[in-house]
Amino acid sequence: MCYSFPFCKPLFSATCTKWRNWGGFWLLGMCNNFAYVVMLSAAHDILKKQETHNSTAQTGNSSNTSHYDCNPTSTAAVLLADILPTLLIKMSAPFVIHKVPYGYRVLLCGLTAAASFLVVSFSSALWMSILGVILASISSGLGELSFLALTVYYSRDVVGGWGSGTGGAGVSGALLYSGLTQLGLTPRTTLLVMLIVPCAMILSYFFLLVAPSSLPQWTTERSQSTGLCPEETERLMDSAVEDDDQDRSTQSMSPTHRHLNLISPRLCAHEQGLLKFVLPLGLVYFAEYFINQGLMELLYFPNSFLSHAEQYRWYQTLYQVGVFASRSSLCCFKIRRLWVLNVVFLMFAVWYQFLPSAWIVFVIILYEGLLGGFAYVNTFYFISKETEDRHREFAMAMASVGDTLGICLSTVLSFPVHKYFCSL
């Protein structure tokens, strides 16, 4: 229990438990998204490494004759491998994931994340690198829907901890990768150093979080308690009379039928109101990742003191700084509406090349990250607030498909854009 720590007296056990859970979800968010972010930051290096292996009698940075200095393969290829498995998991897993206890899910997430770092760092061919990226995607996708669903067993403020942690993953992942490679470490050594992160995820879940008795840790059978925090339990008791008939019919079913009975009304997103959250979130992430993987690589300034690869890394880093700042803002204010217009501006910037310096792009990318972070954390906060208690676990997991679907669609569009500009 919380008060077993020397600094945490029984009188303050509730407060200590609250902060342990908030900190635990912060670390889970950070560790879960870390490999995903690192793979995107390393995308240019991964492709450049394979290009170097496959090239003969080439010197310098001569992958093509285009003034955009393109890789033969777009960095969107790495994003596609990094997001498509996540999309498949998020679209299918919410209907079957209840059969797998949370403890096994966390172990699987940690093992696949560690495997992704090892495979990419020791890869000798493009397909091996892509396989490592896919493993990172599996870990991130399974972890996100599992940990978002897990928040319903805790007080609502852990959603803010999770959101801030995912933003922290962006900053720490992109900054560590960019910083360590800038200091002279090879991409391989940098990835091997990051193996500590999957270990931190497992330790955070099993030793930092204070698990409620209703949590299905190692078995799929839940206890007779509500599985909710005290304040939510009180609200449920107020509606006990209204739900009594439904509860009696539900209890007579098997666990699997009981789960499907709760899911069936939610299959229509209009009826449950999920579309009003999922579609705007998907639109924001479509615009942002079209910039990140479709346009960032093309925003190259040859007269800068930074090389093309370094410019790309710092674009990714500044984006993640903005995401972290805005995802950590939930305790200060909430936002319901956002407008995304910077994708149009940067598209014209790539086309006409009128921006004089990379520093202007740095500011725009930072602003872009702020928009993405606001959209993510506020979406899941309002879902947790406005969804019925009995539907919340499913809704939190299912709504996570919104950003992933937007990213996947942006990746598909990025390929023809990259091909067109690199042919100029």
From TrEMBL:
One of the protein's GO biological processes: regulation of intracellular pH
Pfam families: CLN3 (PF02487)
Subcellular location field: Endomembrane system; Lysosome membrane
Top-level division of the source organism's lineage: Eukaryota
Topological type in the membrane: Multi-pass membrane protein
Keywords: Lysosome, Membrane, Transmembrane, Transmembrane helix, Transport
GO cellular component: endomembrane system; lysosomal membrane
Residue ranges of the TM segments: 25-43, 102-120, 126-154, 166-185, 191-211, 337-354, 360-383, 395-417
UniProt record similarity statement: Belongs to the battenin family.
Name used for this protein in its record: Battenin
Organism: Neogobius melanostomus
